[in-house]
Amino acid sequence: MSLIERDVEALAAELGRRMLALHWRIATAESCTGGLVAGAITTIAGSSDWFDRGFVTYSNDSKRDLLGVPDAILREHGAVSEPTAIAMAEGALIHSDATLAVSITGVAGPGGGTPSKPVGMVCFAWARRGDATISATHHLAGDRAEVRHASVVIALRGLLDLAAAAG
After folding, report:
1. 36-47: buried (b, 16+ CB within 10 Å) or exposed (e) per residue?
2. Each residue's pLDDT tens digit, 8-47
3. How many C-beta atoms lie closer than 10 Å to residue 145's C-beta?
């Protein structure tokens, strides 16, 4: 197991401990990570007690169909944007029994980047039922695998931060 994998596993295990203590469940909505966050979570034994479901919504159609991301947001801002990430996270909460949701959408590369949305640009959102959704954009260095793995770490840390803020 690599250092990155151990770091991800440690974060996921800590997240599990916090979710169990709070009696909360998590949902994920992933595009460029293709389910890696859900995979990291479900690596932890007993995660069925705190992980509700994961949505892999790679295409715009799947973002609309599974999460209810409005066409207007996708047209105006594009799939890789904080408004889309927010709609994805909020849609994951609507379509699950989770208390917390995280979403990730970005350009992992090596192609697909533009001057306004370069390779390595990844948008995140973290939503908690009854609270305002938090979003952030990161510009990550590295190849496709490195961008995706860094995105998993950011997603898990954001969930931990949201849980810590609740108690």
Report:
1. bbbbbbeebeeb
2. 999 999 999 999 999 999 999 999 999 999 999 999 999 9
3. 12
